[in-house]
Amino acid sequence: MSIEKLNSFLAPTYENFPKGRMISLVTLRTSLSELILRTEGTGEPMCREFVQAGSTGDSRRQVVQRLVMTKRKQVAPERRKGREHLRAYNLLYTIKKKEEILTCSLNTNAPCEMCIDCFLYGFAAGGGGAQKSRIWTEDAFSILTATDTLSDRTINAIFETGTMRDEKGNASTALNTSEYIKPGVHFLDVVTLKDVTADEFRYLTGNILLTGRYGAVSSRVGRMENQILGIFGGIAELPSSLELVQAIHDQFTTIGTPLEHPLDNGDLIDATKTVIASWTNRRGVSLQLSDEELAAVIADVDQHWSDAEREAFLRRLDQSYEPFRQVGESKKGKGKKKETAEAGS
Amino acid sequence: MPAQLNLLDKAESATTPRFNTAKLVELWCAEPVFFASRELSDTYYTEGAIGNYALAYAFGWARSPYRLTSSEAGRPRYIEDLTPLNHECYVLPAWSANGSPTFRFERFNALSDAYWYAMTNNRVATAREDVLRVRRGDKPNTFRPSNYPQTGRLRLIERNNRFHTLVFGNHDIPEYIRLGKFMSKVRVQILEEMPITNLPAAEYSSQAYFSTADLPSGINLLSFDLISIPPTPLVKNLRFHAEAWQAGNFIVPANLQFCGGGVQSGV
Ligand SMILES: [Zn+2]
């Protein structure tokens, strides 16, 4: 299987100390429905930012407003996606706090420190220990400007009668204008995985590929599709998402294709592949998977997440952390954690 | 530890500079950068400087483990991790390249992965089964205030800010590093490489930033502005009387080293 192509950048087993192993995924996120990405809370405007349009010559001096998908807005739903399955197979651990038995939970001050999610995405607080995340995301930017990609909608609160008037004939006063991101808007993103094992790679990549909804949690919109356009291995990080989007802007200008909504998926993928093709010339970036290798790696990930193999795959990954769940000899009593020794170095 | 310190003392006794060249390095914030420098009610402030200990770790000069046990989490390892580097490399805290960094404010809001959740008194409650108990007037643990922040405001260094710093010695610097609590991506570019010359003890002023714990012993600090950030306060607009190193237009006190070599620091 072609995931072996990445072997020199994969850890043989979980290790507590960083080594220079990085795998980076160039990820395209495309909205498939109306999408709402606000800074925080309702009433706030959609996340957008003034940035330089491109990175060369005139385009550097041109400032545009692009939509931003913050790193938190990406990671939170992807973690939840993986955790749904951990929960389904009872792979979230419990901790005892005072009188209560608490199951591993995000943001509730009760990380179990033992599950796949805790090992990969990290945690702080809890029992006083901490685990750093080994998945590093970045704020993703839209290729097109905010003006091209946003639209307004007036929301009418309709009564149960299905009309704007209630049974007594009173008109609904609940009229609201809300801003949304149009379907077919592209965000580009660089995701960096550090010191992950092959199964951890499959888990993280699966979370990205299987997550289909982002943005305001309560909204029924927010369908999004993720595609991986490039996989790199090396001892250094790739350029930032912002630089990637700027380089693609310049690439469109070079070939003379207008940047307007709706942007053709194929054109965008071509432009992205052209830009990232030169990245292996950068210091510390030594490998880019070919299109065939990339397709085979994605097929490998899909296979592990298939109905037939998912449970066994997740249990095997869970089992791989077992040595780090043992109570160390020197540490007696109710210690939940082992003094995680530096493995393999 | 003691053996290590002795070694460093010996290395220090030589009067020649430890480094022949210094690099002027620019840091470009591809993302907003956050350090919890200061807390005022529910707002967490980042100062307009980047600490040099954070930079040393971010450059990969020292490795810290992925998992910290509770005993390690509260205890920094700067002396163990950074003082061994002192005869090979050193980096100053970074200052804003245009003199005035820009900031942004953001709200943060912890959310749960449960279908049902409620924001109680600084706590995201997820135990739906306890709602009835709350209605009866009980105060179950799952609804008690949490001891770590669940909502608040952050002041971050805005994207696109540029910082400058001097890097001494020939240790590698990666092209991209991650900084701060949210591992923000920052691009690193070497602008200039400059030879270092020794200047005799005299009165000098410096436009660079310094970590107070890294200043040489015997330096006479005449005036400075203090930036109070963990783990060690920084000084700027420093006038001092001591031997100095000159690199290009920069004059800095001679013999700067992490944690003052681990001897006289209060860290
Ligand atoms: Zn957990």
Record field, number of beta strands of chain A: 13
The Cα radius of gyration of chain B reads: 22 Å
The major β-sheet of chain B equals: 11 strands, antiparallel
- SSE order of chain B in H/E notation? HEEEEHEHHEEEEEHEEEEEEEE
Largest sheet of chain A: 8 strands, antiparallel
Query: What number is the mean pLDDT of chain A?
Result: 87
Give the fraction of residues assigned to helices of chain B: 10-25%
* Chain oligomer state: heterodimer
Strand content of chain A: 15-25%
Main interface pair? A-B, 56 and 43 residues
User: Which molecules are bound in this entry?
Assistant: zinc ion
> What is the 3D shape of chain A?
globular
Q: What is the general shape of chain B?
A: elongated
Q: Low-confidence segments of chain A, ≥5 residues, pLDDT <50?
A: 329-345
The residue ranges of chain B in which pLDDT falls below 50 over 5 or more consecutive positions are 1-14
List the helices and strands of chain A in order.
EEHEHEEHEEEHEEEHEHHEHH
**Content of β-strand of chain B:** 35-45%
Into which percent range does the helicity of residues of chain A fall? 25-40%
Structural class label of chain B: mainly beta
Give the end-to-end Cα distance of chain B, rounded to a whole number of Å: 15 Å
Tally of DSSP β-strands of chain B = 18
What does this structure look like?
The complex is a heterodimer of chains A (345) and B (267). Chain A has 345 residues and is an alpha+beta fold. Chain A is 28% helix and 23% strand. In chain A, strands 1, 2, 3, 7, 8, 11, 12 and 13 form an eight-stranded antiparallel sheet that branches. Chain A has a two-stranded antiparallel ribbon with strand order 4-5. The longest helix of chain A has 18 residues, at 71-88. The model of chain A is unreliable at 329-345 (pLDDT under 50). Chain B is mainly β. In chain B, 12% of the residues lie in helices and 40% in strands. Chain B has five helices and 18 strands. In chain B, the strands form three sheets. In chain B, strands 1, 4, 6, 7, 12, 13, 14, 15, 16, 17 and 18 form an eleven-stranded antiparallel sheet that branches. Chain B has a four-stranded mixed sheet with strand order 2-3-11-8, with no helix packed on it. The relative contact order of chain B is 0.25. Residues 1-14 of chain B have low confidence and may be disordered. Classes of the chains: A alpha+beta (345), B mainly beta (267). At the A-B interface, helix 2, strand 6 and helix 6 of A face strand 5, helix 3, strand 8 and strand 10 of B. The complex binds zinc ion.
